[in-house]
Amino acid sequence: LPSKAVRLYRRLVDEERFRSSEHRENALLFLADSYQQSFGFDEASKAYLRYGEEYRDGKEVRRALVSAALLHETAEDYLRATEAVERFIRLFPKDETTPKMAYVLIALYEKLGDHKAARRAAKKFLKKFGSVAAHSNSSMRATLKLGRWAAESGESSAARKFFKRVVKLFVSNGKMPASRAAKMAAEAAFRLT
Length: 193
Description:
Oligomer: single chain
Strand content: under 5%
Helix content: over 70%
Structural class: mainly alpha
C-alpha cells in the first residue's frame, strides 16, 4: 500500500498538469509522510524540505521542517539537520517551538564538531531566551557548556563568569534540590572552587 500511495502522490507533486492543483500541497506532505512510514527516510526528509521551500506559508510547514531535522539527525546527517533547524528558526522566530529548536541547534553543532558555531549558537540562545523563566533549565545547560568550553580553552576568567551565572540561575529560579538543575549548579559550584 505505501508504494501505491507514493506513486500517486509523486504524480500529483511532479507532473506539470497538477502544478496548480489545490491538492498539490497536501499531496507533497502526504508523499513525505508515506516515505517516512515506509522507512524511506532520505526521501521523506527531501520531501519535507521541499514542502517547506514550496509552501513557506503552508499549514504544516513547521511540522515539515521539524520532521526533516529529526530525520537528518537520526541518520547522523548533522549538517542537513542544522540547515533545517536554522530555516525553522529563521522562518518562525516567534513560534513557541523556536527556543527548543535554538537549543537543539547547539547540540547539532557539537555533533558536527563545529565548536565555534556551537558557542555562537549558545550565546545567541542565551541572548534571546536566557532571561525567560520557562527556559531556565536550557539556559543553565547552555551557560554550563560555555563555561566548560571556556575552561577547556584556558579562558579561566570567562569560565568562572559562566559558572557563577549557572549558580545564580539556579538560585534565582528557585530550582529544586536533587534535580538536573541542582546537578548543573553543583558542577558549576565545584568548578568555581
